[in-house]
Design a protein that fits this description.
Number of domains: 2
Oligomer: single chain
Mean pLDDT: 85
Structural class: alpha/beta
CATH superfamily of the largest domain: Response regulator
Number of helices: 10
Number of strands: 5
Order of helices and strands: EHEHEHEHEHHHHHH
Radius of gyration: 17 Å
Largest sheet: 5 strands, parallel
Length: about 210
């Protein structure tokens, strides 16, 4: 996996780079602030940007929005010490494909990275539950309630709950993995989105899932 690290702490960047390289990943570059992260993302076209939130010049959320808007093929994963719920919600709404805390064990961190290569968002079950609680708050009507079939809504509910791998989705729904892929592709096409993390963000923003049925 080709990775760009964006963090304003040089010691952390060096340590993370060493860890990634030792696991066979290629670190294309390092950014010390959000503005440099955007510039390097455009120039290097990494597979993944590991993005800190609190940085000078341009914060991580703003940098994420710019990268996702211009380079939808680049996956941005927020890697931060902040477990603040609002930062989590805003990161996913901004288009990040994951939110990973810096105190995560190395094995869990690399498991999240492996999931990214399969199109799965990098979200721990605990963080996915936080998103689900936010989704369950009272809100207005769904946008385009007839856009998704009942089966597609079942898949969406599972995604919001943190069931993101094709294998686990297939097991939960009692269908094949190919059927899961078919439903996920239909959801992405109908909602005009690019990845599963954006689907979760859309559900969070528009209350497209009825929380009483999850």
């Amino acid at each position: 996996m080709r990775i760009l690290i964006a963090d304003d702490h040089a010691l952390f960047r060096d340590s993370l780079k060493s860890l990634l390289v030792a696991r066979g990943h290629e670190v294309l570059g390092e950014a010390r602030d959000g503005r440099q992260a955007v510039e390097l993302a455009h120039r290097l076209r990494p597979d993944v940007v590991l993005m800190d939130l609190s940085m000078p010049e341009l914060d991580g959320l703003s940098a994420t929005k710019l990268i996702v808007a211009d380079l939808p093929e680049v996956k941005v994963v927020v890697l931060t010490a902040s477990d603040d719920d609002q930062n989590l919600f805003e990161a996913i709404k901004s288009g990040a494909q994951g939110y990973v805390l810096k105190n995560l064990e190395a094995a869990e961190f690399f498991s999240e990275l492996e999931g990214l290569s399969r199109g799965e968002p990098a979200l721990s079950p605990a963080l996915a539950r936080k998103l689900m609680r936010e989704l369950a708050k009272p809100a207005g009507s769904r946008e385009d309630p007839d856009a998704l079939t009942e089966r597609e809504l079942d898949v969406l509910r599972c995604l919001v709950e943190g069931v993101t791998s094709n294998r686990k989705l297939a097991h939960r729904l009692g269908v094949s993995e190919n059927t899961v892929k078919f439903h996920v592709r239909n959801i992405l096409d109908k909602l005009h989105l690019h990845n599963r993390a954006q689907v979760v963000a859309f559900a969070l923003r528009h209350r497209i899932v009825d929380p009483t049925k999850t």
